[in-house]
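>> received
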Amino acid sequence: MTSLKELAAGSSAWPFQEALSIAERYKDAPPAKGYVLFETGYGPSGLPHIGTFGEVARTTMVRRAFEVISDIPTKLICFSDDMDGLRKVPDNLPNKDMIAANIGKPLTAIPDPFGTHESFGAHMNAKLREFLDHFGFQYEFKSSTKTYKSGEFDKTLLTLLDRYQQVMDVMLPTLGEERQQTYSPFLPVSPRSGKVLLAKVFETNVSKGTIVYEEEDGTKEEVPVTGGHCKLQWKPDMGMRWAALGVDYEMYGKDHLSSAELYSAICSIAGGKPPQQMMYELFLDDKGQKISKSKGNGLTIDEWLRYAPPESLSLYMFQSPRKAKRLYFDVIPRAVDDYQTYIEKFPKEEPLAQLNNPVYHIHSGNPPKPEGTPGFNLLLNLAGVAQAEDPKVLWGYISNYMPDVSAKTHPFLDQLVKGAVNYYHDFIKPTKKYRLPTDVEEKGLHDLAIYLEKVPENATAEEIQTEIYEIGKKYFAENLKAWFSTLYETLLGQPQGPRMGSFVKLYGRTESIALIRRVIAKENLAA
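>> returned
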């Protein structure tokens, strides 16, 4: 019998493919530190967005895949660059004047503009951890400020100070002529102003472990490179961190791709072995622009969860990570329905197909049993017709259709119901636009109403759907799509809709007949 490990080695799912590349790294011997280290980074200058979560979710998928094919223990570090000096005021934050007065200081040295934490950086870190904890990620959180100040980086920083010229030889060719004149990989934290300075360095003293740099007023100042008195420029910082922590795997967005060779080179200079790396494409907003934390032009974590369960977000992260995708409100319904489809398929699949199924990776190899309940788009359409502003309205219809189902017995469906009501209120209701049927369309609707009046109560959704097709063929033989557009636009007030057989079963036969009769009578459904 083929083992799970053997099956995983033949899986086409990208987390297993990544895991195999990590296993190759230690095919001869396990790491001296005793575990394989996965890392993901976070820049807390703006509120966390879904792209930030996606990096942790995807890395976790690779980590769990590695644990299937290898017996080597693993660890995940979520690292926050909260010692970076703030260079500009983010657009989407309160108390901008206060933040502006602290430009240049480390994020952990700036007061919290929200007034809830000891610093701006602490607030942003808390928001990130809150969400990661909500998803049940297993990780170790590391703060750049605390790690620098604790001395954990000191040995590696002193190595780079000793090999200062090697670092400069890597970095200078990537800079413009003017920047080359003042560049240093070490950024001193001014003992006078507390700012992280892009300062010219005059001397490096390896024996003392210090640099001499130019202060803002033009005078010289000497500080240690250890103990949090300096931090590295972001590109050398990444390579240093890989070496100091022994990072084995890290993924990053396409905007880092041009710098990846620099990270690896600095890591090698610092005495480390560059990790296995994966580039993922960036998320785009509704206008096709790159999502930015500082602009706040993407979905927030809370916004997605207002409309859909977290599993749907994890699926969106799993799908095509190397392909640029829009991350906007209109992708949510499809993500939810796709998730439900994969969950329904999983128990019936062969073992290898299960390893390729996204829900295997979303649930770390143990997806829940499917609830067999209505899809999200169907619930959205039901909310639209019922003009539901309260989940109880939808549950009324569901209880008629599925008497044994309740919010208590089907918690996932309850999440869908609540999300559908919110989505309807925010996006569907404001855009609904009903139209009156043409004479031919009215005849088709009339025939549909007659059929539903005669059909037995126990008729299945498929049987009703088949008859709807037959009626459409009678009046729209050459363009059956126009018949379904008629149903969507006149009954639902929108250009697209669900399988109408399923909708009739969920909404109710009597209610569906009444709806059709109102359209034929040219009553205002929007009222």
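>> The chain has a mean pLDDT of 94.
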